[in-house]
Amino acid sequence: MAKAVAGECGVPFVEQNGGNVMGKFLGESADGIKKLFSRARAFAREYGGCIIFIDEIDAIASSRNNQAAITHDEKINALNTLLAEMDGFGDNTGIVVMGATNRLEILDPAILRPGRFDRKIFVPLPGKLARQQILSVYLSKIPLDVDVELDRLATMSPQFSGADLAHWVNEAAVQAACCARERVTMADFFRARDIILAGPQNTGLSLTPEEESAIAWHEAGHAEVRHATGGFVDRVSILPRGQALGITFSVPEDTNLHTKEQLHQELQVLLAGRAAEELFVHQISSGAANDLERASQIAFDAVVRLGLGDRGLFVPQTDSGRHESEASAARLIESAYADAKEILRASAHRVARLHDLLLRDKEVDYRQLLHDSVAESTEDGRRA
What we know:
The chain is mainly alpha-helical. The protein has helices at 2-9, 18-21, 28-47, 58-61, 73-86, 128-139, 150-155, 162-178, 186-198, 209-228, 260-281, 289-304, 322-346, 348-361, 366-383; strands spanning 13-17, 50-55, 95-100, 232-237, 247-251, 363-365. Strands 1-2-3 form a 3-stranded parallel sheet, with helices on both faces. Strands 5-4-6 form a 3-stranded antiparallel sheet. Helix 10 crosses helix 14, helix 11 runs antiparallel to helix 12 (289-304) and helix 12 crosses helix 13. The relative contact order is 0.07.
């Protein structure tokens, strides 16, 4: 982004990493900062402006009040020099200093006051349109098959950062190369996303038929409840990946605000695997451990942060309210679990069909399954 700003302004761009500035010997770091600004001033006089970009600025500018963050006097010396160079008696006409950090909370207050880093810009994750634009840049660098759909790729990648999208495209190209294909197909993007989100397939793990069946019921439950609550399910798999024995690839909505109903639906989806085991396997396994942990955290946050507990708008402020808050969160869990079981009972035939397809094919394209179900219903109606 800093390079883009410099390019738009038509001025030189000077980049430095905060960790590289820090020297081993006393005075070395301060000297490096002085040379950086001296070089920028020379560019500013010659070209009318210059942009300095310091990445990982927290390596230099961590708070002096945080004793744990201060390892030696050299860091304090470097910070004082940076403060003076940015807003001292030197002529900084035409120089703009930009910095980047993931740890804004540990920066020294002096570096954030007016005249220094006085404008903070939060870089959010890209929305669907932005992902399309980012993907188009990276996709232009690789040969693509005709079946690759830019819009679908952008839909499949919510919560992906620009770096995630670049990694995805590179991994898809690797998958195509491994299969000795000259062009990257949509299937390569599916495999690449699976690897990024869940890890490579664990081919060394063998499952008993009973375990495979239980996993298939579990994943079928997740998929059916996600679809029934208005979500989009892409594929369902019982091929072990990483630590997961099965996975349902669903795409959450691009949304910045979550309603109480959406949180309830998310709880239903997380608990649907456990509910499917109870209803169709008639015994409970350890497969839902991660689902239960995530659901419990969502329910607890809903009570103690969002005011969605039994007391309504009140958010507990003390530790003494924790026990009551946990009881309220437990009631949210129980309500969502009951609703998930109700959905599964109502669509038991489709859950059973997905279970059987998973045992046969190991992976199922859920979109195609829905399309086939609609076609069969239409044909049955014509026959009737």
